[in-house]
Protein backbone atom coordinates (compact mmCIF):
# COMPACT_ATOMS: atom_id res chain seq x y z
CA UNK A 1 0.00 0.00 0.00
CA UNK A 2 1.22 3.48 -0.88
CA UNK A 3 0.29 6.68 0.91
CA UNK A 4 0.66 10.19 -0.50
CA UNK A 5 0.71 13.20 1.84
CA UNK A 6 0.02 16.37 -0.10
CA UNK A 7 1.49 19.63 1.18
CA UNK A 8 0.74 23.26 0.29
CA UNK A 9 -1.00 23.45 -3.08
CA UNK A 10 -1.64 19.69 -3.28
CA UNK A 11 -5.08 19.27 -1.73
CA UNK A 12 -7.07 17.01 -4.06
CA UNK A 13 -6.58 13.35 -4.99
CA UNK A 14 -6.93 13.84 -8.77
CA UNK A 15 -3.67 12.00 -9.41
CA UNK A 16 -5.36 8.72 -8.42
CA UNK A 17 -8.36 6.96 -9.96
CA UNK A 18 -11.62 5.48 -8.64
CA UNK A 19 -11.47 7.66 -5.54
CA UNK A 20 -13.53 6.80 -2.46
CA UNK A 21 -13.33 8.82 0.75
CA UNK A 22 -13.18 7.06 4.09
CA UNK A 23 -12.91 8.08 7.73
CA UNK A 24 -10.32 6.28 9.81
CA UNK A 25 -10.58 6.36 13.60
CA UNK A 26 -7.29 6.63 15.48
CA UNK A 27 -6.39 7.09 19.17
CA UNK A 28 -5.58 10.71 18.27
CA UNK A 29 -8.71 11.58 16.30
CA UNK A 30 -10.51 10.70 13.08
CA UNK A 31 -8.75 11.22 9.75
CA UNK A 32 -10.40 11.41 6.32
CA UNK A 33 -8.45 9.60 3.60
CA UNK A 34 -9.08 9.25 -0.12
CA UNK A 35 -8.55 5.71 -1.39
CA UNK A 36 -7.93 5.00 -5.06
CA UNK A 37 -5.53 3.37 -7.42
CA UNK A 38 -2.86 4.21 -9.95
CA UNK A 39 -0.86 1.90 -12.20
CA UNK A 40 -2.55 -1.10 -10.56
CA UNK A 41 -1.38 -0.04 -7.09
CA UNK A 42 -3.64 0.83 -4.17
CA UNK A 43 -2.99 4.42 -3.13
CA UNK A 44 -4.26 6.50 -0.21
CA UNK A 45 -4.16 10.30 -0.37
CA UNK A 46 -4.10 12.69 2.60
CA UNK A 47 -4.00 16.51 2.33
CA UNK A 48 -1.75 17.58 5.22
CA UNK A 49 -3.40 20.98 5.67
CA UNK A 50 -6.94 19.82 4.89
CA UNK A 51 -8.79 20.13 1.60
CA UNK A 52 -8.83 23.95 1.71
CA UNK A 53 -5.59 24.62 3.59
CA UNK A 54 -7.52 25.25 6.80
CA UNK A 55 -4.97 23.71 9.22
CA UNK A 56 -1.77 25.68 9.98
CA UNK A 57 1.49 23.73 10.26
CA UNK A 58 1.79 23.92 14.06
CA UNK A 59 -1.74 22.51 14.55
CA UNK A 60 -1.59 19.58 12.12
CA UNK A 61 -2.48 16.32 13.86
CA UNK A 62 0.64 14.52 12.68
CA UNK A 63 0.15 11.50 14.94
CA UNK A 64 -3.41 10.91 13.75
CA UNK A 65 -2.36 11.26 10.10
CA UNK A 66 0.48 8.75 10.27
CA UNK A 67 -1.48 6.33 12.45
CA UNK A 68 -4.41 6.40 10.01
CA UNK A 69 -2.17 5.54 7.07
CA UNK A 70 -0.64 2.68 9.04
CA UNK A 71 -4.11 1.50 10.09
CA UNK A 72 -5.27 1.05 6.48
CA UNK A 73 -2.15 -0.89 5.55
CA UNK A 74 0.15 1.74 4.06
CA UNK A 75 3.83 0.81 4.30
CA UNK A 76 5.31 3.47 1.96
CA UNK A 77 4.68 7.21 2.18
CA UNK A 78 5.51 9.78 -0.49
CA UNK A 79 5.20 13.30 0.91
CA UNK A 80 5.30 16.72 -0.73
CA UNK A 81 5.90 20.19 0.64
CA UNK A 82 6.79 23.76 -0.25
CA UNK A 83 10.01 25.29 1.05
CA UNK A 84 12.25 28.33 0.99
CA UNK A 85 15.84 28.14 -0.16
CA UNK A 86 18.70 28.87 2.22
CA UNK A 87 21.22 28.57 -0.56
CA UNK A 88 21.59 30.77 -3.64
CA UNK A 89 22.59 27.66 -5.59
CA UNK A 90 19.11 26.16 -5.02
CA UNK A 91 16.80 28.50 -6.97
CA UNK A 92 13.00 28.65 -6.81
CA UNK A 93 11.52 25.97 -9.03
CA UNK A 94 13.96 23.30 -7.86
CA UNK A 95 12.71 19.95 -6.57
CA UNK A 96 14.69 18.65 -3.59
CA UNK A 97 14.63 15.04 -2.38
CA UNK A 98 15.13 15.40 1.37
CA UNK A 99 18.08 13.52 2.85
CA UNK A 100 18.28 14.87 6.42
CA UNK A 101 16.75 17.43 8.75
CA UNK A 102 17.30 19.99 11.49
CA UNK A 103 14.36 20.15 13.88
CA UNK A 104 13.49 23.59 15.30
CA UNK A 105 9.87 22.81 16.17
CA UNK A 106 8.82 23.58 19.74
CA UNK A 107 5.36 22.49 20.85
CA UNK A 108 4.36 19.51 18.71
CA UNK A 109 3.69 16.01 20.04
CA UNK A 110 6.57 14.23 18.34
CA UNK A 111 6.37 10.56 19.29
CA UNK A 112 3.92 7.69 19.64
CA UNK A 113 5.98 6.33 22.53
CA UNK A 114 5.19 8.45 25.58
CA UNK A 115 6.09 5.85 28.17
CA UNK A 116 3.24 5.64 30.68
CA UNK A 117 0.90 7.54 28.35
CA UNK A 118 1.81 5.57 25.24
CA UNK A 119 -0.92 3.92 23.16
CA UNK A 120 1.40 1.47 21.43
CA UNK A 121 3.53 -1.55 22.21
CA UNK A 122 2.59 -1.95 25.87
CA UNK A 123 3.67 1.58 26.72
CA UNK A 124 7.27 1.04 25.68
CA UNK A 125 9.88 3.76 25.63
CA UNK A 126 11.50 3.88 22.19
CA UNK A 127 14.55 5.77 20.92
CA UNK A 128 14.21 5.54 17.13
CA UNK A 129 17.31 5.91 14.97
CA UNK A 130 17.29 8.84 12.54
CA UNK A 131 20.82 8.62 11.19
CA UNK A 132 19.28 8.30 7.75
CA UNK A 133 15.74 9.57 8.35
CA UNK A 134 14.36 9.14 4.82
CA UNK A 135 13.95 5.77 3.11
CA UNK A 136 16.85 5.39 0.62
CA UNK A 137 14.78 3.19 -1.69
CA UNK A 138 11.93 5.69 -1.98
CA UNK A 139 14.33 8.62 -2.27
CA UNK A 140 15.98 6.98 -5.26
CA UNK A 141 12.60 6.24 -6.85
CA UNK A 142 11.40 9.84 -6.50
CA UNK A 143 14.66 11.27 -7.82
CA UNK A 144 14.61 8.98 -10.86
CA UNK A 145 10.96 9.86 -11.47
CA UNK A 146 11.81 13.56 -11.54
CA UNK A 147 14.67 12.99 -13.95
CA UNK A 148 12.36 11.03 -16.24
CA UNK A 149 10.09 14.09 -16.32
CA UNK A 150 13.08 16.36 -17.12
CA UNK A 151 12.58 18.47 -14.01
CA UNK A 152 15.31 20.34 -12.06
CA UNK A 153 16.06 17.74 -9.37
CA UNK A 154 18.44 17.66 -6.42
CA UNK A 155 18.99 14.20 -4.95
CA UNK A 156 19.74 15.47 -1.44
CA UNK A 157 18.99 18.39 0.85
CA UNK A 158 18.90 19.17 4.57
CA UNK A 159 15.43 20.39 5.58
CA UNK A 160 15.16 22.85 8.45
CA UNK A 161 11.75 22.57 10.10
CA UNK A 162 10.48 25.57 12.07
CA UNK A 163 7.39 25.83 14.25
CA UNK A 164 5.52 28.44 12.25
CA UNK A 165 3.08 29.74 11.37
CA UNK A 166 5.25 32.86 11.02
CA UNK A 167 8.06 32.96 8.51
CA UNK A 168 11.63 32.94 9.81
CA UNK A 169 13.66 36.04 10.63
CA UNK A 170 16.71 36.91 8.54
CA UNK A 171 18.93 36.16 11.56
CA UNK A 172 17.39 32.70 11.90
CA UNK A 173 17.91 32.04 8.21
CA UNK A 174 21.57 33.02 8.53
CA UNK A 175 21.94 30.61 11.47
CA UNK A 176 20.18 27.75 9.66
CA UNK A 177 22.46 28.20 6.66
CA UNK A 178 25.58 28.14 8.83
CA UNK A 179 24.34 24.95 10.50
CA UNK A 180 24.17 23.20 7.15
CA UNK A 181 20.54 23.63 6.17
CA UNK A 182 19.58 23.78 2.49
CA UNK A 183 15.86 24.54 2.59
CA UNK A 184 13.39 25.63 5.25
CA UNK A 185 9.76 24.73 5.85
CA UNK A 186 7.23 24.06 8.61
CA UNK A 187 5.77 20.59 8.11
CA UNK A 188 8.26 17.72 7.76
CA UNK A 189 8.73 17.26 11.50
CA UNK A 190 7.57 15.26 13.34
CA UNK A 191 5.97 13.56 10.31
CA UNK A 192 9.08 11.70 9.16
CA UNK A 193 9.97 10.59 12.70
CA UNK A 194 6.48 9.27 13.38
CA UNK A 195 6.58 7.25 10.17
CA UNK A 196 9.85 5.70 11.29
CA UNK A 197 8.41 4.84 14.70
CA UNK A 198 5.73 2.79 12.92
CA UNK A 199 8.39 1.22 10.64
CA UNK A 200 7.00 2.84 7.50
CA UNK A 201 9.11 3.86 4.51
CA UNK A 202 8.96 7.63 4.09
CA UNK A 203 10.42 9.98 1.49
CA UNK A 204 9.65 13.61 0.84
CA UNK A 205 10.07 15.91 -2.14
CA UNK A 206 10.05 19.64 -1.54
CA UNK A 207 9.49 22.25 -4.19
CA UNK A 208 11.45 25.44 -3.60
CA UNK A 209 9.04 28.35 -4.00
CA UNK A 210 11.19 31.30 -2.89
CA UNK A 211 14.45 32.43 -1.34
CA UNK A 212 14.22 32.69 2.44
CA UNK A 213 14.29 35.93 4.45
CA UNK A 214 17.50 37.91 4.04
CA UNK A 215 18.41 36.03 0.87
CA UNK A 216 15.41 37.43 -0.96
CA UNK A 217 15.16 41.21 -1.20
CA UNK A 218 11.36 40.97 -1.09
CA UNK A 219 8.89 40.64 1.76
CA UNK A 220 7.74 37.03 1.99
CA UNK A 221 4.04 36.23 1.64
CA UNK A 222 2.14 32.96 1.80
CA UNK A 223 0.21 34.07 -1.27
CA UNK A 224 3.46 34.00 -3.22
CA UNK A 225 4.13 30.45 -2.05
CA UNK A 226 0.67 29.26 -3.04
CA UNK A 227 0.86 31.02 -6.42
CA UNK A 228 4.11 29.27 -7.30
CA UNK A 229 2.81 25.91 -6.07
CA UNK A 230 -0.36 26.40 -8.11
CA UNK A 231 1.70 26.98 -11.24
CA UNK A 232 3.85 23.91 -10.61
CA UNK A 233 1.54 21.42 -8.92
CA UNK A 234 1.21 19.50 -12.19
CA UNK A 235 4.96 18.84 -12.06
CA UNK A 236 4.60 17.42 -8.55
CA UNK A 237 1.81 15.16 -9.82
CA UNK A 238 4.00 14.03 -12.74
CA UNK A 239 6.74 13.01 -10.32
CA UNK A 240 4.33 11.07 -8.12
CA UNK A 241 2.65 9.35 -11.05
CA UNK A 242 6.00 8.34 -12.51
CA UNK A 243 7.29 7.20 -9.11
CA UNK A 244 4.40 4.92 -8.14
CA UNK A 245 5.03 2.18 -10.74
CA UNK A 246 8.78 2.36 -9.99
CA UNK A 247 8.28 1.37 -6.33
CA UNK A 248 9.32 -2.29 -5.89
CA UNK A 249 6.64 -4.71 -4.72
CA UNK A 250 8.85 -5.78 -1.81
CA UNK A 251 10.70 -3.45 0.53
CA UNK A 252 14.47 -3.72 0.17
CA UNK A 253 15.43 -1.29 2.93
CA UNK A 254 15.77 -1.39 6.71
CA UNK A 255 12.64 0.64 7.46
CA UNK A 256 10.56 -2.41 8.39
CA UNK A 257 12.94 -3.37 11.22
CA UNK A 258 13.59 0.05 12.79
CA UNK A 259 12.21 -0.94 16.21
CA UNK A 260 14.77 -3.72 16.59
CA UNK A 261 17.10 -2.50 19.34
CA UNK A 262 15.22 0.79 19.71
CA UNK A 263 13.16 -0.11 22.78
CA UNK A 264 14.51 0.83 26.19
CA UNK A 265 15.11 -2.08 28.55
Helix content: 10-25%
What's the tally of helices?
5
Main sheet: strands, sense, barrel: 11 strands, mixed
Briefly note the CATH topology name: Rossmann fold
Globally, the shape reads globular
CATH class: Alpha Beta
Low-confidence stretches: none
What is the level-2 CATH architecture name? Answer: 3-Layer(aba) Sandwich
Alpha-beta content class: alpha/beta
- Mean pLDDT comes to 91
- Using only C-alpha atoms, the radius of gyration works out to 17 Å
Order of helices and strands: EEEEHEEEHEEHEHEH
Strand content: 25-35%
Cα end-to-end separation: 32 Å
Could you walk me through the main structural features you see in this protein, from its secondary elements to its overall organization?
Helices cover 23% and strands 27% of the residues. A hairpin with a 2-residue loop joins β3 (29-38) and β4. α2 crosses α5 (222-243). The model has no long low-confidence stretch (mean pLDDT 91). It is globular, with a radius of gyration of 17 Å. It has 265 residues and is α/β, with parallel strands linked by helices.
Which features characterize this protein?
265 residues, alpha/beta, eleven-stranded mixed beta sheet
Give me the secondary-structure topology.
Blueprint: E1 2-6, E2 17-26, E3 29-38, E4 41-47, H1 62-71, E5 76-85, E6 95-97, E7 100-104, H2 136-148, E8 153-154, E9 158-162, H3 170-178, E10 183-185, H4 191-197, E11 201-211, H5 222-243
Parallel strand pairs: 1-4, 1-5, 5-11, 6-8, 7-9, 9-10
Antiparallel strand pairs: 2-3, 3-4, 5-10, 6-11
Helix pairs in contact: 2-5
